[in-house]
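#struct-queue
[09:14] JT: dropping the first one here, sequence first, then the structure tokens:
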Amino acid sequence: MTGEPLIQARGLGLHYGKKRVLDGLDFEIPAGRIVGLLGHNGAGKTSLMRTLVGLSSHEGTLRVLGLDPQRQRTTLLQSLCYIPDVAILPRWARASELITLMAGLHPRFSAERARQLLQRTSVGLNDKVKTLSRGMVVQLHLALVAAIDARLMILDEPTLGLDVLSRKAFYEMLLDEWCDGERSVLISTHQVEEVESLLSDVLMLSEGKLVLNIPLTEVDERFVAFSHDPAVAEAVAAAHPLLRYRSQGQPAALFQGEPPPEVAALGQRLRPSLVDLFVALTRAPELNRATPR
């Protein structure tokens, strides 16, 4: 991928009083990527997203679409879409009224495009927000945001509280109607298993630190997992895996890099999942040493 990255961060830090919530983050997001931002509650995900859209002051260097998010926020928001985890739509408004409102507020919003996107949903133009289910409200919100001619979309837990069918419909609409190989999406979510197949890259935070920054195509090069017989569990544990767990009823271990050949010979190689990596890299080290049950 060539060209200037859509997001560039160097030594990015953030304090809330004495609490350090982002600690020296270095990363880039090129064009045409779907990036998962993962981390436990309190890891710094929302703080990072707020910083990217200019809502929080920061240390270090940060450029989003080539702009300083704080000093050039008005210009930035013309080419950036953001749905925070607390996003709401006015309950009294009809979908058509929200489209009219957006057309008057945002210079790069297409009312026609919004109406086309709504046709993919069960939301009618005359429907009021207060009559819609939570899933329908999220679909309406995405239709409004995706109708902006932007280069970057930032989504903070967009499907929180939705059932599995509503989440699936949301992601299908996002992929089909917005991702075009040039625009990028940064999406924070706890539904790691559901989004793994959608993502091109992952950023993983733990206590404000970036513990993983990798294209998913490189996971197999950097991490090795294999299942093994319970009888060899002690020998595997002695090689100090990142994580010991169970896979399809069998004990398994996850290593960063290749384990010693004599240990690798004790089991059958598996593909590391994003969930396994998340657990291994964000849980307390002493828990990783626990014997898998």
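[09:21] JT: and here's the second one, same format:
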Amino acid sequence: MTANALAAGEGQEAAALLERTRETVNPELRRTVESLPGSMRRVAMYHFGWEDEEGRPTDGGAGKAIRPALVLASAQALGGPLAGDPAGRGVVRAAVAVELAHNFTLLHDDVIDKDVRRRGRPTAWTVFGIPDAIITGDAVMALALRLFSEDPHPAAAAASARLAACVIELCAGQQADCAFESRPDVALDECLTMATAKTGALLGCACALGALYAGAGPEEVEAMDAFGREAGLAFQLIDDLIGIWGDPGHTGKPAGADLLARKKSLPVVAALTSGTRAGAELADLYAGPMAGDDVRAAARAVERAGGRDWAQAHAADRMGRAVQELSRAVPDLAAAGGLLALAEFVTRRTR
């Protein structure tokens, strides 16, 4: 089998796994969101894609479901009950909690980054206002923790504590990301640490929660967390590349949106710290306001300075590390096919 055929097969497996996850998780996710009081429920239902701004049902979805899929696949890889079994209800609730925590960050990030589009339509804050978007994000996070407080599963308390710690780390990563925007010099190691906290922490937490609900021991739980963190950093590297070169028709955001906002994403910082002429040109562009021609020039400068190649190579390296961590928890990687397919999917995606 050729490498392209193998990648296509893994992509199909990941797509099927994500679809099964949505079918399993979305009903519980929706029931949980619908428990919010009226005004917050309306904002949340719009954000998740289930209603339009007038409260009318839509055909939209609640996202790719990568994080809840990691919870379910991790539990299965470690011999936990399948999500469809009665004994697997706890792991489904854990998957819902992770997706709620993720969307808490999205609601807040859209406000912080002033993003006006998400999933192909206006962001919640542009429709309902900044206060309602922030407050709804807070309530969505509270729903995640409430799920654990009401769960009789023996892993629920440890899972709740781990998710809370993860969210604190995630917020620290977001705070660092915001601080970088006003700093002229940001080291690449700083940027990697920020990305690990902002993105890797939640993917690691998702994998660790799956392990907890499978009854795994401390060493296996930590190895799964490390797997998710490394895969999460690879995910962020690819996401940063999409933020510069992604197709607006697929991303739902303007071309070069991250450059327009002068974000210190990983490819950008790699270019700025490259010591090249193109890196210096990029620094000059970032020093002033960006317009359409400037965004295109900045994208070319990032590429000429090696930022694009570095990000692609580093994503592959991080995925190699992720597989090493996974093998500590699941020595027979054949049992972790779902996790490997998901990891391959997030590092080969183009949108």
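[09:30] RK: nice, looked through the second one.
[09:31] RK: Strands lie at 117-118, 121-122.
[09:31] JT: good to know. Residues 1-7 have pLDDT under 50 and may be disordered.
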